[in-house]
Amino acid sequence: MPPTTTSSSSSRSLLLHLAVSAAAGNATSSAPLACSEVSRVCTAFLAFPAAAANVSLLESMFDAATGDLTADAVASPGYAFVRKNCSCFPSRTYLANTTYTIPSAAAPLNATAADVAAAAYAGLAVPPPGGAAQRPPRPGAVVALHLLCGCSSGPWNYLLSYVGVDGDTVESLSSRFGASMDAIEAANGMAGPDPITAGKVYYVPLNSDL
Ligand SMILES: *[C@@H]1O[C@H](CO)[C@@H](O)[C@H](O)[C@H]1NC(C)=O
Ligand SMILES: *[C@@H]1O[C@H](CO)[C@@H](O)[C@H](O)[C@H]1NC(C)=O
Ligand SMILES: *[C@@H]1O[C@H](CO)[C@@H](O)[C@H](O)[C@H]1NC(C)=O
Ligand SMILES: *[C@@H]1O[C@H](CO)[C@@H](O)[C@H](O)[C@H]1NC(C)=O
Question: Looking at residue 3, what is its pLDDT?
């Protein structure tokens, strides 16, 4: 069953602590989804692995409003779903803009702002081209990032950006999100039920609004 929309008040009641986790290491291995119709815009969803949801932090990280955040603890424990407008950028890739404010917690001395931001988004974000994100992660600095999102080019309404974790299979994603295995394979250009790579973004077709 696809996760269903919760009310703003129940989203708000979730307590969020970021799992800035091991998955972040592979963040840059995901390529954005290609597009051809520059300036096409659609509604997209992103699955963010939050151990519990601090709504104000999610709103800030995804430049989203409370009503754009949903969660379903039964269908996908530990995930928050963010609704974003996704666009075909001039680079002919589907992306959405967001910004990340570097927190005051100590970052490794040799990390860049891009490293810290990529770790925070657990693989859903990449820095835009240009040097700004390569600066040291000064607390309070605002870093522009691109979220990996997608618009459907198949017979389904939305794509959900989902970062693979150890143990995932096409079959497990299919039963978790209610998309057929064929649809998941088609949306991701997979030849068959290939293994799911931990840390890589997959686009899961959805027919209903999350
Ligand atoms: C949400 O998380 C941020 C960053 O960790 C923290 O500053 C803020 O106090 C938290 N808000 C709530 C309501 O817990
Ligand atoms: C998407 O864009 C529309 C039109 O500009 C806007 O009204 C809406 O709030 C946006 N939705 C999100 C989730 O940003
Ligand atoms: C994303 O941000 C860039 C840089 O600020 C801006 O030029 C572009 O119009 C934005 N695109 C969208 C779809 O918001
Ligand atoms: C950054 O420093 C840590 C600890 O000294 C080290 O383990 C890591 O490999 C370094 N990373 C890079 C990219 O140099």
Answer: 43
97 pocket-lining for ligand 3 (C-beta < 6 Å):
yes
| Residues spanned by the domain of 202 | 8-96+145-206
Q: Which three-class secondary structure state does DSSP give residue 164? A: coil
Is position 127 within any domain? Answer: no
Determine contact, residues 96/201, Cβ cutoff 8 Å.
no
Which residues pair with residue 205 across a beta bridge?
159
Q: Is residue 140 in some structural domain?
A: no
| Number of domains forming the structure of the chain | 1
Section 15-37 average pLDDT: 54
* Long-range contacts, stretch 175-178, CB < 8 angstroms, 24+ apart: 176/75, 176/76, 177/2, 177/3, 177/75, 177/76, 177/204, 177/206, 178/1, 178/2, 178/206, 178/207, 178/208
Q: Is the CB of 13 under 6 A from ligand 1?
A: no
CA nearest ligand 3 atom 11, residue: 97
Per-residue model confidence (pLDDT) at position 135: 85
Q: What is the pLDDT of residues 107-131, one digit of tens each?
A: 777 888 888 888 899 899 998 887 7
Whether the Cβ atoms of residue 159 and residue 151 lie closer than 8 Å to each other: yes
Q: CB of 152 closer than 6 A to ligand 1?
A: no
In a domain, 139, yes or no: no
Across the strands, what pairs with 44? 84
Global confidence as pTM: 0.81
Alpha helices in the chain (DSSP H): 8-13, 55-62, 113-120, 170-177, 181-187
